[in-house]
Amino acid sequence: xxxxxxxxxxxxxxxxxxxxxxxxxxxxxxxxxxxxxxxxxxxxxxxxxxxxxxxxxxxxxxxxxxxxxxxxxxxxxxxxxxxxxxxxxxxxxxxxxxxxxxxxxx
Length: 106
Fold this sequence. Notes:
Elements: H1 17-28, H2 34-75, H3 97-105
């Protein structure tokens, strides 16, 4: 055996549902492509899990901050809903011309 090539073996228990499904999927892969298939699956699992964990943590963190903000708003006697949010229909610029002129002069 070549020093650059390594061999591994696994035992699949076909009585376990996951093992049986994995065996069926592996047998669908052509014989010459199975090593690449297993390597890709391992790398995807190792790389994808930390990314998924990070995204899950970020999502939970954002949700917690939103919950905390909602509680703060409610405790201050203010309740924000889509019904009481008003949009500006005014044609006036958000920044007045005097402020823009001042900024241009800088």
